[in-house]
Amino acid sequence: MTAQTLIEVEHLSRYFGPIAAVNAINFELRRGEVLGFLGPNGAGKSTSMKMITGNLAPSAGRIRICGHDLLDQPKLAKAEIGYLPEQPPLYRDFTVDEYLQFCARINRIAKGHIKTAMDNAKQRCGLTEVGSRLIGNLSKGFQQRVGIAQAIIHTPAIVVLDEPTVGLDPIQIREIRKLIRDLGQEHGVILSTHILPEVQMTCDRVQIIHRGKLVFSDDVSNLNERMQSSSLLLTLRNPPSAAALSSIQGVSQVEVLGPNQFRLLHATTRSPAEAVAEQSVKNSWGLCELTPERKTLEQIFVEITSTEQHTEAAA
Predict the structure, then answer these.
(1) Residue 47 DSSP symbol
(2) H or E segment to which residue 196 belongs
C-alpha cells in the first residue's frame, strides 16, 4: 500500500444466506480522487459501503483504512472515515448548529476545537447562513448538505457518500456535485450511485459493480474514450442503395433506419464523415443530416453487464 492509498480492499465478500451480495471485490482509493462506485439498484453498492465504513461485518476479505485493519483496529480505522448513508442520519428537531455540535462531540473533537470544526464544516458545505434553522424546515438539498457536513466535521481522510443526490432537483444536484468535486481535492471520496451521468461529471475513476462483482474499473477519461463516436446518423433526400453507402471508404456497416435514414458504422479512430459528405454532393444525394453518434454511459453499462452475463452463462 502506497503513502497515498487511503483504502485497500482485498477479496471482500458478504453473503446473506446462500446469496452473495458482494463477491470477492478488490479496489483502492487514493488521496485527492473521487471514485465512482456505479451499479443498478441491488448490485451490492450499499452493502459494500456499509462494510467499508465498519457498519456491516464482511463474510470474507480484508479492509485497510489509512494503514489500519478495519477488523483489528476499528477505532483507528473508523476515525479516518466520514460517512453519509443513503438515508442521512439527521435529527429534524435540532438546529443545524445543535446537530453539528452533537456530531463533533461523538467524533471526540476536543471541546476547545468544536466551534472551529463546526464553522469549517458549515463554510465548506454552504451552511453558514442557516446554522440557527431547524433541520426539518430546510429543503432536501440543504439537508443533504448538513449530512455531508456531519461526515466531514472531524476532517477525515476518507468521505463515503451513498446516493447523495437522490430526490434532489436539478439545481440542488448541480450544487451537491460541485461540493463533491471540492471535497475530492483534499480527501479521498467514494461516491456510490446508480445515476450514470453523476460519475462522468463528478468522478476521476469509476468502478461498476454488477450482481456483487466488479465488472469494470478504469479512469473516467478512458471511459469517455469508449464513448467516442463509432457511427454516423445519415439522412438523404435522394438516397442510394445501402450497398453504395457501404462502398464509401471507412464505412464498415450500414443499418437502414428508414426510407431516407441510415446509420453508418465505422472505427472509432477514423470517421468517414468527410468522404460521405463529398460523395453526397458529387452524386446529388441531397444531404439533410450527418451527425456523429456517441455511445452513452447507459449503452456502455449495458455492454459491460451483458458481457458479464454471457461469460457466466458460458461457464
Answers:
(1) H
(2) helix 196-202
Q: How far is CA 146 from CA 36, 84, 97, 100, 125, in A?
A: 21, 10, 10, 8, 7
Which three cell numbers mark 155?
476532517
> Which has the closest alpha carbon to 135: 93, 173, 102?
93
Q: Which of 275, 290, 292 is nearest to 236 (CA)?
A: 290
Q: Spell 90-109 as b/e; 16+ CB within 10 A means b.
A: beeebbbbebbbebbeebeb
Burial classification of residue 157, based on how many CB atoms lie within 10 Å of its CB (0-12 exposed, 13-18 middle, 19 or more buried): middle
| Structural domains of the chain in order of their starting residue, each with its CATH number | 1-80+158-167+186-227 (3.40.50.300), 87-155 (no CATH), 228-293 (3.30.70)
- pTM of the entire predicted model: 0.76
Q: How do residues 219-253 score in pLDDT, each as one tens digit?
A: 887 776 766 668 899 999 999 999 999 999 999 99
Distance CA 310, CA 315 (A): 9
